[in-house]
Amino acid sequence: MFTGIIEATGTVAELSRVREEWRLVVAAGGLSLADVKLGDSIAVNGCCLTVVAFDAKQFSADVSNETMNCTSLGQLQTGSRVNLEKAMQATARFGGHIVSGHVDGVGHLVSTTPDGQSIRLVYEAPAELARYIAGKGSICIDGTSLTVNAVNGAQFTVNVIPHTQVETIIGDYIIGQKVNLEVDLVARYLERIMQGDKAAAATGWGAKSGGIDAAFLAEHGYNTERNA
Predict the structure, then answer these.
(1) How far apart, in whole angstroms, are the C-alpha atoms of residue 174 and residue 170?
(2) Exposure string for 134-153, b = 16+ CB within 10 A, e = fewer
(3) Whether the Cβ atoms of residue 201 and residue 210 lie closer than 8 Å to each other
(4) Which end of the chain is more exposed for a tag (fewer CB within 10 A), N or C?
């Protein structure tokens, strides 16, 4: 479990094929590895990875083909900067929001506009994630916990203060930049729970659920006209 508060930025030292999957080696930069053990979790650009080797300056993680296909890690190259966060401790201060490190999809940066000393960024999420993104809700972008300002269809805006620009890789982004998105954990489970018995109906691996719409709400006793 993570909080979306980036502890340091690191650099990709190596990304190579190992036994038909991938091995990622990250130079940890300012992230202390003094308390890291084999098997610990470290989020790299929001992806929860397991430490399989480490020394004082870098760590290695195995990355499955599934993870490479479902995240932006496949676009990393030697020298790419990455956001890093170690798994939180139960006694630590909870500074961001609940982040699992399980990426829901890959979005991209649409535009960037100065807003005082901050910058206002517009992102576009995959269409199937749009229903989980709400104004003033939380979203995790490449592992960084941010507040959604507003939404418009599958697009949403966030403001990034100067401190976050410096302490994360967001300041490096260019238009079209692909980013890992993790939506609010509660939203995902709430939809699944509201499906009730229908959640157990087999639809085939990878099939998209019908989601929650007006017909679904009406079927479950919600008066859409009265609450319009």
Answers:
(1) 9
(2) eeebbbbbbbbbbebeebee
(3) no
(4) C
| Cα distance between residue 63 and residue 73, in whole Å | 9
Strands 81-86 and 8-18: antiparallel
Cβ atoms of residues 135 and 149 within 8 Å: yes
Q: Which amino acid appears at position 197 of this protein?
A: D
Helix, strand, or coil here: 98?
coil
Any idea how long the chain is?
Answer: 228
Q: Which domains does the chain have, with CATH numbers?
A: 8-86 (2.40.30.20), 105-185 (2.40.30.20), 186-219 (no CATH)
pLDDT tens digits, one per residue of 151-179? 999 999 999 999 999 999 998 999 999 99
Query: Using CA of residue 145, residue 57, residue 172, residue 70, what is the dihedral sign?
Result: negative
